[in-house]
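As described in the Methods, two query proteins were run sequentially through the folding procedure within a single session, without resetting any intermediate state between them. The first query and its resulting structure tokens are shown here.
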Amino acid sequence: MSSSLRSRIQGGTLVVLAPVLLVGLFAVPRVLQLGSALRAIIQANYISIQCAQHMQFVLHGLQTAELEGDSTRALPGLRNEFSHWMTIENQSLTEIGEPETAKDIDTSANHLFDDIAAARPGTRHDRQFDHLFSETNRLIKLNQNAIWRNDSRARQLSQQVIFTLVTSLLVAIALGIALSWAISNAIARPLSEVAAQLREVGESNLPVRLGHQRLRELEYVAHSFNQMADRLEYYQRLNIDRLLFEKSKIEAIIQRLDDGITLIDTAGKVAHLNEVAALVLGVDPADSIGKPFEGLPSDAASYLQIREDLRRFKQDQGRERHGEITLHVRGRDRSFMVHPIRLDEGKYAIGTLLVLQDVTYVREQDRARNNLIATLSHELRTPLTSLGLAAQILERKASTNTDDERKLLATIVSEFSRMSDLIDDLLDVSRQPHPSLGLRWARFDLVQMVKELGRRFVTQATEKGVALNVRADVLPQIYADREKISWALSNLIVNALRHTPQHGSVEIVARSVDPALVRLEVSDTGPGIPPEMREQIFERFSQYAADGQRTGAAGLGLAIAKEIVDAHGGRISVESNLGHGSRFLVDLPISPPSAAPH
């Protein structure tokens, strides 16, 4: 019958613990008993020393009063105090000779007190005082010696206990080493046998089973292992069919994707590609599997471009790279974005996944939007030109106008010029996916520009019932395109006025951030912007309305502002709490970026 590993370990542990428990049963009561006795004795000795010291203090007071001729008045109080401490001392007698000393002190003190009460004024009792001082000192010395003796006894006992504990500990350690050696040998031998059998299982695919084990726990392990082996044989037969089914399912899903998928292994060979990828690359899937991607039998321009993009991707050590190709697939022109993705599993490379993402719908939408913007800009130019001519005619007759009318006319002419420039820039934005803004660099006064913009929008803010405040610190002149910066800030102000309700407020701030940066801030008390929209609002055609209604804008204002700020080497961001307004921040360098013309 196999013995239990638990019973062996428990038996060995009990053998090791037995001497330790015996020593504990012997030592702990003695230590506790000694501690209690020592505390009681030391406490009584300490009280006796205090009583003797207080009695000496009373005797000193009485002797001083006798020298001053005031002993008769001081005697009653001092006698009562002496009797009080004498009573406490009689209750704390612990040492040999202490009762006799205490009785002698009590008797001598009473005689002294009686003699002083009956003596004539001026009589001295120095001999009696000296005797009492000597006896109280003897009492103090007696208790001090007792304390020292108790301390010595305690040290001796503690040394005995320590010796006993150390001895028992050494015995327990010796027993533990011997038992652990015996138990480890008893355990290691069957474990080594089981490990050897399991190693045979790992090295071969044969259905190995474990036999009878001498330890009960290992017998359980062997039984469980044999059951597991039976199940593994069953699952192994099922897994092959399951894997084939899953592989077919994944291949069917990949084949139905509108995006092209090509898997290239670490050796550079094509491991899989779907129908769309084969059409884009101009190859036959059956002839391409297992062949190097660099040597696929295709002369298609799209394949050559994708192959070059993949080479640059490998040269850049897997840094993200995107290319775009356009070709005729499945009866229509389609655009594909090339996304090479490196596949890694921990430290090991699996290969490269080449994704040809179908962006045809996105490009069609971009073209539709750009065409719409170009058309609207063209249609706006005609009435804007008429408005400019009318303003020029009115300007020639300005001599007959009032001052307010001349100011309004000057504003119309200024806004006409600015709107013409805006339409030109809007056309630039619509013509290119990433337009390069033509900046006219010059040094100008940013504070003056901010104040002019504030005056320009005062009328619009007043009509809407919104308070418009302008606050500008003293700032150095900056080197930038004044018209473009004014355009970007105007877009932010218009955006703030559009979303600020009646009786709200909009604030424009210009201040210094550090010696190299200035900051423009446009704050409003509108509905705020949710966190998930704060990055998207700077994208072209992105719109957001807190009430779910139309914003009344094309969604280009913030995108244009970001383009302008980025072109100046600055940064634009937004801070907002939903329901508590928003604050747009524009940081601009005072000195021009290195790429700007000086």
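Immediately afterward, the second query was submitted; its sequence and tokens are:
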Amino acid sequence: MINLVLNPGIDGRYSTEGEINGVPVKFLIDTGAVRCVVPLRLMNTMGLYPGKKVRTSTANGIGTAYHTNIETLTFGNFTLRNVDGKLSVGMNHQEFTVLGMSALKQFNFTQQEGMLVIWQPDQPTVG
């Protein structure tokens, strides 16, 4: 089984390096976020396209975002395709993207001795 083990940062949050559509990013792991969220300013660099405009409600307040589809999302040894995401206007000053539940729902994860362990459950075999 392949897993990813992350130590918390000084601020107690977990983060990891990865890629969105081949572009390197720093992911902030956020199990409270429904979707993966990318700063709007990175849209063109990452080959993302804005969809429907929506209002968002986060720990940082009310904001504006656009639905988007992330064709390829990679972190650790994991690669996901066609991940539901949002482009956030309010995150334009951030240096990270949010790895939310639209990606994390495909994994199991637990905290052990202060570390976050993420692994992909075995895929069932057919036949």
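The CA atoms of residues 56 and 81 lie 24 Å apart. We note this only descriptively and draw no conclusion about the first query from it.
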